[in-house]
Amino acid sequence: MEQEKNSILIVDDSSLNIIALTNILQKDYKFYVEKDGAACVATAQKHVPDLILLDILMPGLDGFEVIQALKKNSVTKDIPVIFVTGLDSNQDEERGFMLGAVDYINKPFSPSVVKLRVKNQIQIVNQIRMIHNISITDELTGIGNRRFFYAQLEQEWSHASRHQAYLSFMMIDIDKFKAYNDNYGHMQGDNALRAVAQAIKDCLTRGTDICARWGGEEFAVVLPHTNITGAREVAERVRTHVEALSLPMDNGTLTRVTISVGINALIPPHEGGGYNLNNFVSDADRALYHAKATGRNRACAISDLQEEPTP
Per-residue pLDDT for 97 more than 50? Predict the structure, then answer.
């Protein structure tokens, strides 16, 4: 499969400059194009390009004002900006770097210089992205790791608390996984972990739903704007999907695994309301323990327990 091209936003009030830059770079990148500063800010926030080539002298917002606006916005603050400008004084260059520009290309520009400077910045962007992806991804299963997941869960908890919206959390555990490893070996156990991770991921239909490997044979899922009814539906979909998996071994035989699921769903109280995120996770874990203690291969919510949730 062909790798997706990096994206560049070109901002210049001159159509000739835009045409020249796109002709120089069109083979290797995809483009967004704007002719004024306000449109640049809007497009950058909407599409989050990998790099911005920004003219300084434009009607309305000039390039210096644009980069200030970009750096103040949490969505666009990390997008590298190269100024492409006819201004060549040391003071202008110094000002640009002080505001956060990563490089300068002077007009009239050389095609070879444009290519090299853009290539250098794109390589840096891709390296940073690769390092970031490694840091948030579980190496074995390819889904998020616990560190990444908990950061996302904290954000969703805060958002749900602010907007008084439902939030659901599922803790998932592969049943009798130690025995599975002992019977079939750790390589087959790793295959099972990967298959279960993919099954969970396949069952999440919304871009806002997040799954991760919590640790060992445990996985976690957060479902924003989802009440207990919706969470039970997702949990059952995941459980049946995993139960239906046929996991091949090297000798041609097939193995199977099942999972147990603990669910918690509520509208988080406003900050300082007593019940906190740790309670939320702990109650889902208690529900998981109940699911395993009452037969495994089933999903239980904290509300299924006779005792009340932790106050």
Answer: yes
